[in-house]
Amino acid sequence: MHYEVAGDDLVWAGAAASDLKNELKRLGICPEVIRKTAVAMYEAEINMVIHADGGSIDVDISPDSILVTLKDNGVGIPDIEKAMIEGYSTASEEVRDMGFGAGMGLPNIKRCADVLKITSEIGVGTTVEIQVNI
Amino acid sequence: MKLKDIIRYVEATVYVCDELAEEEIISACGADLMSDVLAFSKERVVLLTGLVNLQVIRTAEMMEIKAILFVRGKEPTREMKSLAEEKSILLMSTKYSMYFSCGILYQKGLGRL
Predict the structure, then answer these.
(1) What is the pLDDT of residues B48-65, one digit of tens each?
(2) Residue A98 and residue B53: Cβ atoms within 8 Å?
(3) Residues of chain A found within 8 Å of residue B53, distances taken between Cβ atoms
(4) d(C-alpha A132, C-alpha A61), whole Å
(5) For A98, which of B36, B55, B62 is closest by C-beta distance?
(6) CATH number of the domain that A7 lies in?
């Protein structure tokens, strides 16, 4: 599955995660796996809108895992280790008003993912790979 | 506790999905920070929040949250009602504050197990 995420629309962000959740339900995947995948992808999708002006998401579903790959052409993450710390945030006031940007997105993704891989280059973009085992 | 009991205890006005009033709820999450809600992993939950925007509905959808109670008289927008209806999430509002609403439901036994 492939999704394009618009970068300027925090109000409607999450539509891709919602669509994937429906698809996983349709496939009869176990509810706990669906919850973990939906939450991780939703947080990552929000991050993509907040920090990177959108991007693209590809989802591969195999018999034993779900792999969600999010790619953006944003500013990049200068210090990934620091970004993983709960409470660390560079988000704007507007984002905080929406109920996000409290430095919990990446820690939440990590909690839900069985494997999480983040690669980032300043000025080039970030790729986030989230694997959830079935 | 059933959703209809929660509606009665906090004297809530229901906006959409009142057909879910017979649903059994066993826990509650009170938060204005959606990432806090996304870190909460209990089932059959009612979400109490003072935040009013579409991401509240999206968050509930991701977490399979059955109902959202807006505190301090806040009302959901037309877009929120429409998305909640599509996702089968009951939306309601109470005049009581977050602290008071949580207090009432806790006192009545919600989430005390």
Answers:
(1) 999 999 999 999 999 999
(2) yes
(3) 11, 98-99
(4) 10
(5) B55
(6) 3.30.565.10
